[in-house]
Amino acid sequence: MDEQAAPRRGRPGYDQATVLRRAIELFNQKGYDGTSIGDLASELGLSKSAIYHHVPSKEHLLQQALDEALGALTEALDRIEAASGLTATERLRTAVRTSVVVLVEHLPAVTLLLRVHGNSAAEQDALARRRALDDRLAAMVRAAAADGELRDDIAPDLLSRLLFGMVNSLVEWVRPGHDESAEHLADALAALAFEGLLR
């Protein structure tokens, strides 16, 4: 009776996108500082030395994740600012909606971005880039307020913090596969922000 030889098991192969996705998951679960390159190797079924065939360092993965989140947000704002024929309030409303869509579509990377503390060069760079984005969004709020299209009993900078704080809070409860689509969440948040709760 012939016995078939057991299939050979080689080193699992992963593309860069898969490695990055798994790293972001671990960073969000355990914290970036609490995640070792060994943890990632174990998650992927690789030896600690083999992981370096896939990535040069843990910080490299962090940089890629933060670039994903910041790049998507930056591109979205660039498109909005380049659009013609929008009032300041329409531009702001589009920025709010688009920020929600980007957050949902890049949820793990944006979640990681919102949790960094500046403990590494990659984190410090990300925080500086995030402040620049916050400044652009605040400028949109100020422009809408200057046009007389927003209520004037709340300072524009406070409005900006409240508005985009509401957007950022989505990372606390939205999960991949959530029942609500990104577009529906964006519409709901924009309606709440610009029309309020009352009928």
UniProtKB/TrEMBL annotation:
Protein name: TetR/AcrR family transcriptional regulator
One Pfam family in the UniProt entry: TetR_C_24
PROSITE patterns reported for this sequence: HTH_TETR_2
Domain HTH tetR-type: 13-73
DNA-binding listed as a keyword: yes
InterPro entries: Homeodomain-like_sf (IPR009057), HTH-type_TetR-like_transc_reg (IPR050109), HTH_TetR (IPR001647), KstR2_TetR_C (IPR041490), Tet_transcr_reg_TetR-rel_C_sf (IPR036271)
Alphabetized SUPFAM superfamilies for the sequence: Homeodomain-like (SSF46689), Tetracyclin repressor-like, C-terminal domain (SSF48498)
Keywords linked to the UniProt accession: DNA-binding, Transcription, Transcription regulation
Gene Ontology MF annotations: DNA-binding transcription factor activity; transcription cis-regulatory region binding
UniProt DNA-binding region: 36-55
Keyword DNA-binding: yes
Highest taxon of the lineage: Bacteria
